[in-house]
Amino acid sequence: MADTASNVVINSLLFWDEAVAAYDRNDLNVALQKLWEIPDPSAKTFFNIGLVQQRLKNYEAAEKAFESSIIKDCHLAVGHYQLAITNYKMNKFQKSEISFNLAHQCLRGRNYIDYKQLGLRFLLYECEVLHNLSLAYLGLNDRHTALQMIDKALVSAENHKNLKEQIVSSKQSIQAGRQATLLELPQEVIFRPPKSKTANIGKKDYLGKAKVVSSVTEKDEATGFIPAPKEIQPLDRVQTRAEIPSPPPYRPPPNITTVPLGKQPVIAALPDIVPSTTLKQTQPAVPSASETQPTAPSPNQPDEDIHKPQKVPPSQPLPELPNQQSKDQEKLPQTLPKVPPSTPLPDLPTPSTQPGAKTDQTPSTGPKIPPNQPLPDLPTGSVNQSSINKASDTKPNRPPPTK
């Protein structure tokens, strides 16, 4: 449904734009045909049809078109105005007077109506409606009312110089008993579609037709990623020997000396070297690597001598290495100096808790140690267990307690 409605709107705009273009070219029949092809005609469409019929002097068809426009929009003042003009030209002065009055009512007390926003480049002034209304009353033989309306038109046209001159001329003609001319719309005035809607309404081919712009061969007319196969051009002449490029000069490979498989030298594995400082002079010397391993064959030695087994002296046991821990113990002194046992302090008598008991005032016989003097440092080193046992067996000589 949405696509159908959008297609109707697009077709209406297309036909409307084509009809206006034909109207500007003064091709009225084509313009009329395009206007009738609009699917859903509006008040503007019927108004345009009435203008075309009016220019073709088909006043009856124009009258029907303007009536249809008013039915679509009863507040369209310019529609009532054009219907009144059509009826006036058909000498239907009664209908003309009614239509002019309806157009004046649609102004609603304003001096003019600008239809530019609706696509009609025209301003309908109140003085124009009153001027034509006076002519309709004059057609009805109502001269007094006609002069009243022409006076009102002059008052309304105070600020419009051109219209005021035409109204003054018409008043003079009425007073002289001559026929005055109607004020009509210019011929170029017609409802036009908005340019914002018709600018991009037509289909445009942005990509265009594909064509080959560059090719390897002149006869390549195919389109794709792979060009046509290139034609093989026959050779005009055979290349001479001098034109054929010569190959690069031969370079021999570098000299690499090879040794036969059976004559490869044997590399003897060297034993682990023991530092001489850890061995004593009384131990026998360790045989060297040259004595334990066979010598490498000379290049002049025959193959038979190489494959013969070589005599190897029996292996001798390695001397025992001195124990590092025992050597360190030899450096330590065997005996340590004896440390005198420390003399314990005498037991102090406990004071009696009974009243009147005498306390022992005799001083202790132990050595006097000055205050704030550090104790002597003991010698470091290991202490023999025997000396420790002897020190523990000795008991200090304690003085007898005093009575």
How would you describe the overall organization of this protein?
The structure is a single chain. This protein has 403 residues and is mostly helical. The protein contains 14 helices and 2 strands, in the order ααααααββαααααααα. It has helices spanning 2-24, 28-36, 43-55, 59-72, 77-89, 93-107, 126-139, 143-156, 161-176, 195-198, 289-292, 303-307, 324-331, 385-393, and strands spanning 112-114, 123-125. Strands 1-2 form a two-stranded antiparallel ribbon. Strand 1 (112-114) and strand 2 (123-125) form a beta hairpin. Helix 4 (59-72) runs antiparallel to helix 5.
Descriptive labels:
single chain, 403 residues, mainly alpha, two-stranded antiparallel sheet, 40% helix
